[in-house]
Amino acid sequence: MRCCRLPPVDRARRVAAVVVLFFGCSEPSEESQASVAPSATTATSVSSPKSTVPAIPKSVRERLAALRAIEEIANAHLVREADRSHRDPRVRRAATRALARIGTEDALEGLRHALADEDGDVVAWAAYGLGRMCRQHPDEIVRALAVRSASVSLEGLTAEGLDLPLSFAMALGRCEARAAEATLRGWLSGAPAFRAVAPLGLGGLALSSRALSDSTLVALLDATDRAQVPPSTLFGFELIVDLSESVQKRLVSVAKRAAGSATPHIVRALERGGGEMVPALKEILDAPEQSVAARAAAARSLGQLSAPGQLALRGTLSEWSDVPSHHSEQLLEPAFWVPLSTALGALQPPAAQIRETLETWSDLELTESKALRLRQVKLRCAAAQILANRASLSKRLQACDPDEGRVGKLAAVKVLSRGQLHGARLTVWKRYAKDEDALVVQAALQLLSFHPEVENAAAALAVALGSSQGGTVARAAQLIAKRPGLANRAGVFPPAQDPQLRAALSAAFDKARPADQVAVQVRLIDAVAALQILSRKPRIEELCRDPNASLRNAAARALIAMGRTDPKPCPAPAPPTVFPKAALQPTRLVNIVFQSDVGPLSLSLDRELAPRSVARIVELVEGGFYQGLAVHRVETGRALQLGDRAGDGFGSADKSPLPLEGSPKRFSEFHVGMVSHGPSTSSAAIFVTLSARPDLIGDYTWLGTASAEWAKLEEGDEIQTAELTEP
């Protein structure tokens, strides 16, 4: 390997340049020597988020627009050396961000060199991009990240809006290499900034490998116990399937000491302690001073701990028995409604000890207020389905939703899940499997995974495949892909696939679908491969050349399942060489106010970090898309989703899918992101986090922040209007 000849630089830049030695280097060009990066102080003196584009020199503004377009068409060759060594840090940031998001082999060299930059944002983007490519080059990239994170020059860098240590931690967390784990473990006793994010990187490793060494786990628990890292970073432990007995006991001990200020991750750590942790979990559930997210997590954990947990849930619910009936307005307060609804959802029948309470709730008098009525109906039906146990024709169950809407039907499907589907129960199930509500149909179909006694399941799946609702088609296809036996004809031996279902699947596969239903088509490809419908192989080979990464990946899986021996049958197509014109937006921040059933809700979105996604949201707001839309999914205490007219999360805006605009940004409480089912599947749906979600960092487009009022929303609440406001 040739040695680099470095121009005269200060000590900080010499240390930073060491990184280049791990990858090889070339002599600096005259242009790059003439465009030496400014100092760290100068690099961070950039315009504020509200500054306008005209403040940027014209030549810089034009190049920033060009780099944004290059990022859009994903052609790393169009990023120039002059961009990567430009005097203005904004150009270097845009160039590095483009390379990081493109993520192809021809972006690697530019990211290597950007890691030695003196601007914090450039380095953060470089680390993020290298992390995305780490599985292809684990040893070299881990070594470079470790050396750069330890360099003296990094200590003086700051980043505008990006967390520099976090970008390194999450990059190492993607590497799946022993050296990455060792580096992150070493950070636990290192500089405070890196010590604080090391558990997040280790959690990333656990997310991909489901395992960490005992020495790493012990070091992480030691750091948590000494309050050197926040307890909320215990999320990695909940991802590991097999913990040694000694580590599990220590984990529970540490979590118990931290339970005074519980987080969902602490709660799930306590759950690993089994029945002995029931009193601690109940104490969290019952404590109004604990966060709503932690109390919801405690209710779910108690529901998983068999008889002792169920007994604790009954005790808590009996203590709340008179509140909804005498103070119904409390149902609109997240601090009361979320723990109550989650605890009731985790409760299993029979519940004779609180039968009187459940009967009171199931008979709750309804009011005219739309938002309050929704929660009252949910409470009535949740109580009624527990009282019904397996009685699908229970009068209370049938009467819980006077509007005969989704809430009552989903409660009935839950009752059906508790026993075998024969006779009258099977008749009821068939009715819901053909319901007009897509979510009810999908819930009914999902029971097929656990009820093999259902005869002629293929007929129900064939009907679902012909649905006009994309989510219903996707659910049916997903079931077929996971359990091909469901496609067999009833009562036939030896087993043979139902010809009507094969025909329905082929027709669904051939059908032209809205642009944003990529995830539906992916599931259909998987189902076609599972049933070996070889007549559709030519079409799958065509999808091998599709520009959408999710479709190409699905086509590759299918072709291998159908006999192709090439391990990479669907290479990515060559990117365009001519890019469209792009213009910078006049302001960085976009503010949106939604008027909803629970009052006004606001968002503040960042055009700089997610230009294409924010532009899509703005377009939809201006076109009135969100008006009349209901919240279609709520994970209590975790996240909620909005932006799908069908209500099943599989697209309805008929807009071209958007690529991931990932970034090294935390998803903290009340942050906003784009809903995604895989690469290039986002369209119109957004999510708002209701607690910290480190598992989402870098894998979902970060859009901005939301007001705390979003926590008031429940599944089914509607948006009346949406409008842009001044930032």
Task: Give structural notes.
With 727 residues, this protein is mainly α. Among the domains are: 11-175, Leucine-rich Repeat Variant (Alpha Horseshoe), CATH 1.25.10; 423-579, Leucine-rich Repeat Variant (Alpha Horseshoe), CATH 1.25.10; 589-725, Cyclophilin-like (Cyclophilin). The chain has an 8-stranded antiparallel sheet, covered by helices on one side. A hairpin with a 3-residue loop joins strand 3 (633-635) and strand 4 (639-642).
Task: Describe this structure in a few short sentences.
The protein has 727 residues and is mainly α. Strands 3-4-6-5-7-2-1-8 form an 8-stranded antiparallel sheet, covered by helices on one side.
Specify the CATH class of one domain: Mainly Alpha
Strand percentage = 5-15%
**Helical region count?**
33
Average predicted local confidence, pLDDT:
88
Strand order of the largest sheet: 3-4-6-5-7-2-1-8
The secondary structure category is mainly alpha
Tell me the number of strands. Answer: 8
N- and C-termini, Cα separation: 53 Å
